[in-house]
Specification:
408 residues, alpha+beta, 21-stranded mixed sheet, 27% helix
Amino acid sequence: MSPLTQVTTARLGDHLPLIELIPDTDALAWVRRGEGLVGWGIHAKTSVKGPHRFKDAREWWHQHLEQFSVTDTVHGTGTGPILFTSFSFDEEDDSVLIIPEVTVGMRGGQSWITWIGDAPQPSLADQVELLTSLQLSWSDGTLSTDLWQERVSSAISRIQSGAIDKVVLARDLNGTAEARIDPRSVLRNLESEYPSTWCFAVGELVGATPELLLRLNRSMVTSRVLAGTISRTGDDEKDLALAASLARSSKDLEEHVYAVRSVADSLAPFCSSTNVPDSPFVLHLANVMHLATDVTGAIAETSQHIDTFSILEKLHPSAAVCGTPTAAAAAVISELEGMSRGRYAGPVGWIDARGDGELGIALRCGQIEANRIKIYAGCGIVSGSDPYRELAESQAKFTPMISALSRD
């Protein structure tokens, strides 16, 4: 029998700038308002796909947990060994699972470090200096803007015929730089400009999502649902008026109701009680505003352990990124989008040894390949949608990544 691998978690104490700690390769991050987790070095990595990818991911993670001898003096959610994961939207694409050699966490002004192996506690002083951002040239992705609007029109016709209630259609853009794209520069800019989002990096997928798909912490589950969007002008008085119009918009409220219902229905079997607010609030971001609802629940006490993987299997894909009914909407996406979403719109975040974790929906993001990046944006299409307005909304959703890639 092989000896167990030592995993040690120790307190660090003071506040740390998490994103500044990541090296320039294999960046791993889940950070919001300076708190969260970052990791580097790869202890183990794999990919899973197919209809059982969440179960396969749990099995792989547990196999590694059985090989660990853990010394954890901090004892909190996110301490001990951590799995960073980025699941695909579709079961046919690869999901990425990474166990880092070193993880640094920050919560409530307190920080900690976890490392795998018998070596002394790693130093945090020798990280590589951040590269400056680059100028990129942009080109159409899979579909031109005109063709994408035609596909939106087709989707609206199907909705009005009663074939489906809602579908989310995404589009992509391709960016090319003169040198390698550094994910840390992108994360640094996103964190600065969009502090209320969750900034993430896993397997060269980098972004800042405003949508928390799932937080499981000591038998309490939370999901932030976003659906319904309007662009900001930068004028506070005008934006307040736009926020009020968004809150009254029948088209956006219809889109939002479908998304909230799908999440609440998925969480209900796991919970002894759930709380679904009667009406959404307006979430203000730097470039757009969203209708938002926080759905919460208390996990029921059962003979079977309920963990993050269990809930993800039922929760993804929600109507916020797919549509409703799910199977019919997914078929329309496959037919009309003409592209592979990869890990865009899939669950991304981290899971700890207890099965707790935080995962967002991979939105406002891009997949980096050396000096190239593919970025994504999607729009919820309902009966009252207009192709031109949906195109404008998608352009607004591209803005965070385009800006983060070009700023110094």
